[in-house]
């Protein structure tokens, strides 16, 4: 039998880890439950990872799969036949390979959730746990529909965010290219013309500065020292971001940057609220739901705050208090969570919060982009104007002298 590594919590909330040999992940969970341990994470040992486990499938494609599978099951089509239909009609090579493996595992007796867990880059952890909860609770079709709806919302939000930033990025790239070409290739042609004014000390300071920048940009020192230095710094920052400390620092800066920081923070909090609310609505225990949703936030700072909240819940305390103490969650969000805990409506309130946060943040992002575009145009126009004036003033001065 394959080996599974697990992380669990005992009745006192302490973490316990180890490995077990079992036929399926479900069997491992049952064994741990029999030992009064609450499973937090169960993974197959590296040697047991399914073929194609690293295959990636886009979220929009997976949303369609969840929706179609729910429709087939609701129409009375058996699970194996439904998976076979989806596999045969798929034109995506990665998806076809994933569905083929899932089909064979379900055929061998695994549950759909356990089979999906073998492909973490195709099926999100949230989807896997919701399918497991739906399979155990007898509402698999509804769980799949909710997963499809959630995945579509997240992909739509991601698409809108990327679309909003495309034009400013193109504008910035084009403007930087134009200014670089002017300074490196156009300005040097005036250097000889201005040499006499420079010798007499009559060259305007703006022109002197422009010529110095141009000469510095074309210097071999830039080619052999500055550019390698920039590349080295970039490589260092990239490697730093691969470490937990580097990612944490980057996430902290991301949510603290003026203007854009609150936008990043709101999107992260909205993701956390939506995933947690959806999982709770589908019967996933709150500790397991927090374990999943804290990673869904996509920000290490928020992840740490939610982990502390999980410890509080393990000892019988509320969720709102540690979230408020972290200082990273908006006061409105904390207050609504506190009221929802008292009224036992946490799942629906969290989903409503996510909807509200995403709408407001999308408006803030749209306003920011609308303001960013004219600001970038003004800045680029000002730079070009300074370059032109710095070149024209000496030309006009020379013309008047010659006259």
Describe the structure.
It is a single chain. With 403 residues, the protein is mostly helical. The protein has 3 domains: 3-48, Roll (Ubiquitin-like (UB roll)); 59-123, no CATH class; 149-403, Up-down Bundle (Receptor-associated Protein). The chain contains 17 helices and 3 strands. The chain has a 3-stranded antiparallel β-sheet with strand order 2-1-3. α6 (125-137) runs antiparallel to α7, α9 crosses α17 and α12 runs antiparallel to α17. The mean pLDDT is 81.
Write the topology of this structure.
Blueprint: E1 3-9, E2 15-21, H1 25-34, E3 38-44, H2 59-74, H3 79-89, H4 93-107, H5 112-116, H6 125-137, H7 140-186, H8 195-199, H9 205-217, H10 220-241, H11 244-256, H12 261-281, H13 286-296, H14 300-314, H15 320-326, H16 331-343, H17 346-402
Antiparallel strand pairs: 1-2, 1-3
Helix pairs in contact: 2-3, 2-7, 3-4, 6-7, 7-17, 9-17, 10-11, 11-12, 12-13, 12-17, 13-14, 14-15, 15-16, 16-17
């Amino acid at each position: 039998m394959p080996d599974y590594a697990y992380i669990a919590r005992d009745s006192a909330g302490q973490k316990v880890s180890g490995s077990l040999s079992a036929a399926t992940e479900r069997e491992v969970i049952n064994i741990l439950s029999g030992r009064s341990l609450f499973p937090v994470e169960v993974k197959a040992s590296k040697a047991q990872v399914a073929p194609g486990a690293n295959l990636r499938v886009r979220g929009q494609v997976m949303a369609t799969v969840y929706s179609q599978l729910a429709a087939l099951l609701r129409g009375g089509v058996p699970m194996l036949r439904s998976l076979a239909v989806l596999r045969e009609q798929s034109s995506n090579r990665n998806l076809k390979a994933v569905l083929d493996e899932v089909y064979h595992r379900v055929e061998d007796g695994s549950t759909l959730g356990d089979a999906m867990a073998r492909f973490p880059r195709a099926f999100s952890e949230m989807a896997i746990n919701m399918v497991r909860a739906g399979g155990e609770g007898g509402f698999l079709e509804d769980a799949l529909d909710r997963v499809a709806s959630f995945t579509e919302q997240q992909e739509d939000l991601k698409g809108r965010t990327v679309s909003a930033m495309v034009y400013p990025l193109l504008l910035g790239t084009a403007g930087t290219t134009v200014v670089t070409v002017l300074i490196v290739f156009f300005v040097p042609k005036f250097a000889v013309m201005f040499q006499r004014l420079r010798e007499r000390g009559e060259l305007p300071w703006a022109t002197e500065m422009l010529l110095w920048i141009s000469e510095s940009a074309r210097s071999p020192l830039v080619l052999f020292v500055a550019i390698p230095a920039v590349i080295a710094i970039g490589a260092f920052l990239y490697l730093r971001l691969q470490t937990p400390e580097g990612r944490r620092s980057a996430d902290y800066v991301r949510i603290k940057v003026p203007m854009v920081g609150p936008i990043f923070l709101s999107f992260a909090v909205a993701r956390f609220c939506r995933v947690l609310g959806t999982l709770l609505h589908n019967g996933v225990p709150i500790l397991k739901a927090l374990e999943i949703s804290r990673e869904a936030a996509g920000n290490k700072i928020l992840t740490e705050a939610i982990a502390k909240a999980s410890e509080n819940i393990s000892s019988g305390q509320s969720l709102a208090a540690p979230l408020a103490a972290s200082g990273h969650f908006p006061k409105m969000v904390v207050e609504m969570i506190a009221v929802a805990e008292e009224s036992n409506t946490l799942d629906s309130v969290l989903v409503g919060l996510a909807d509200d946060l995403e709408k407001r943040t999308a408006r803030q992002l749209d306003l920011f982009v609308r303001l960013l575009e004219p600001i970038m145009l003004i800045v680029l126009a000002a730079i070009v104007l300074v370059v032109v004036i710095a070149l024209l003033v000496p030309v006009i001065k020379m013309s008047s002298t010659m006259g």
